[in-house]
Sequence to fold (467 residues):
Amino acid sequence: MPQNFLTCDRDQPMLLPPDLRDWLPEDHLAWFVIEAIEELGTEPFYVSYRADGHGRAAHEPKMMLTLLAYAYAVGERSSRGIERRCREDIAFRVICANQVPDHATIARFRVRHEGALADLFGQVLGLCAQAGIVEVGVLAVDGTKLEASASNHATRSYERIAAEILAEAGRIDAAEDEIHGEARGDELPEQLVSREGRRAWLREAKERLQAERAAEPEPVPRERSERLQICRRRLVEDWQTECQANRDYEAYRARGVMKNGRRFGRTPNPHMPPAEPEGKINLTDPDSKNMKAYRGYVQGYNAQAVTTRAQIIVAAEIAPDGLDFAQLDPMVSAAEKELAGAGVTERPEVVLADAGYWSNDHIDRLRERGMTPLVAADADRSKGPRKTRLGGPYDFMRRALATESGGGLYSRRQGMIEPVFAQIKQTRRAGRFKRRGRAAVRSEWRLIAATHNLLKLHRHTLSAAAV
Fold:
């Protein structure tokens, strides 16, 4: 009796059913993403196209949006990788209806609709709220360091940037000579020179500068010569901010009276601001920072998130630096805004955060809004409390966390948010941003968070159907 095998005939004219709906099972993620995008308001993706129909035909924006959403959900964020899978992957072919957008078209779509892609997060959160999986009684706040699309070896000092500008573009030097004459053009104005500086004043001044840059982020140009100019300008702005803060502090000290009406004590030691900008900046992505991460330092961004018990992300933002202590109240406020936009009327009751988020002012603000913040006072309990964290609010929080109810609530923090970052960075391979610049990175981070919520909603739908 001959052996019995299924036939493998590669010359068969048709290997796939003629109807796309027969290519994938009904519960496949691709169908779910297609249906979810149909439920969203996609009008902002159409306004930038001509209404008269003239010009070369573009790919349908809703199809492109669905393609991006599915690609990010399955961990494919490279435009070239997406193009390749549109040829080779059945699910991608179903989404595109057998069209193959090239990688340049995909990349341009992502840039062109940067703001609309960022706003997609709130709409997806609304779908999760309608499904009843957004319970906001207890929220967890945390951040993770994601690598930028830049190497830390591209970081330069002011002197090296200035030298490179002169080496690459002599015309810039000639133009500055016409404006400033024999002066350098970045000398400290005489009225700004002062002898005393104070870190608190400098920190506040730099925070205001960072807020201004965050309010109106500028795109990162492709030309290296243009990026050199941006980096040079930012270093000069930081330096001038330090000098201005030094001057303001001198004027404050000259009054002889503190803000609370008490007189100053001893005269501070003299301080002279640097003669030229100090510090370093990355030439590839000037908005990225060299941050301390879990394993060493990374050139990247501090991606912040707020999650529920069911690991639904209710807020996703990018912090201006690698520190978390100034992000507690802003992230909870962002979560409240996103929840209100998604139609969630329930108010957060408890907010969980690790020791990096400790800020007396932020904790008080949350309490004033009726929330109970549970923030660890100590990063490492085995080493005991730090000398700077002794006294009233710190001891009170330690006692609260030592109770059965407080400790039980805080013990949920790690399981609420740490797996979210692990899934994003490891399972979905989104540990490094593809785009450059704060605005572009924020758009990408919110798209990553939106697709995370889509995956949660898909699993919830499957489990509900199986019951």
